[in-house]
Write a structure and sequence with these properties.
alpha/beta, globular, 8 helices, 2 domains, Gly_oxidase_ThiO, about 400 residues, glycine oxidase, D-Amino Acid Oxidase, Chain A, domain 2, binds glycine, about 30% helix, flavin adenine dinucleotide binding, thiamine biosynthesis, FAD/NAD(P)-binding domain, FAD/NAD-bd_sf
Length: about 400
Amino acid sequence: MHPRTSTGSDVLVVGGGIIGLVTAWRAAQRGLRTTVVDPDPGGGAAQVAAGMLAAVTELHYGEETLLGLNLASARRYPDFVAELQEATGQDVGHRACGTLAVALDSDDRAHLRELHALQRRCGLESEWLTGRDCRRLEPMLAPGVRGGLRVDGDHQIDPRRLAAALVTACERAGVVLLRGWAERLTVVRDRATGVVLSDGGELTADQIVLAAGSLSGRLAGVPDDVLPPVRPVKGQVLRLSVPPAYAPFLSRTVRAVVRGSHVYLVPRENGELVVGATSEELGWDTTVTAGGVYELLRDAHELVPGITELPLTETRAGLRPGSPDNAPLLGATTLPGLHLATGHYRNGVLLTPVTGDVMGALLATGVLPEEAAAFTPHRFDRVREEQPA
Ligand code: GLY
């Protein structure tokens, strides 16, 4: 096969996961000729993620700025889903089911009480429930549950369906999906001008968006001081299926921190039950381990003992694109022509609508909307300058 060479896109997106695809879709809707390069568009971390839209239950100390972006994206979800479903005719499994975060012992309960206080200080809606109230809502919960937080605004979507719909939306909007590996960024006279593919082909564009998830820090040719500080954080996830005779097994997402590890159970309308997730700093390793599966099942079983009756249908590991402050990098770099949309860490699915909107606006107008101003790559410039050479 001859190397593929193409010139003349307005926008070239490197990476066809949900962040790259939503960026491309929004750019194309604004009239920009857009190409996405990825060996498997619609693949990536979305094939593993559970799809919780958990702005409130995944709140962490020190992440109040990120909370603002997470909430902005959560508010957009209903309209975003309606638009995407209208554009594609594909259902994306959005379920406004709410979330229940529960405590199994007094340590968990203290942790959850602190989370509740933080949520209230941030003006978020969540309600403290006794263990009995939790079990009234979700009868499959273990009798030992000591209390919980009911958060009716934290919903879910099926990330695999979301990715598939974004592929269709891009195709229908005229985005060129080029199946290949971008091996090296081309820089001409201090400006990013395209990429060289692994088959030797070349693509050029006026603007390039690096949206390659955990791989974003590895594109050759990107100057060291521009390379995003993104690292892979492994998550192992299980999928089970709830036979009709057991339904409804759970009616909402149930989660907890068990012995310091997060575990969550996300029940889909189609009977799939997703159990996640480990969080491991092991580089590029995506092995599913006996230990990972054991810990997830052990913790999930403590929460919902009946889970051991369900067929286990899939085990898989993916890589979250972690950033130094757990927030995404959105916007222009110091290399003219090169933008970033990466580093979404635990919130890639949640942040998909707002990422599409701000990146689309940036690519069409040259101005990053104010709501993303705190998330530009420039916030790491000083840290880099201070690092010893
Ligand atoms: N947001 C869920 C996770 O990263 O595991």
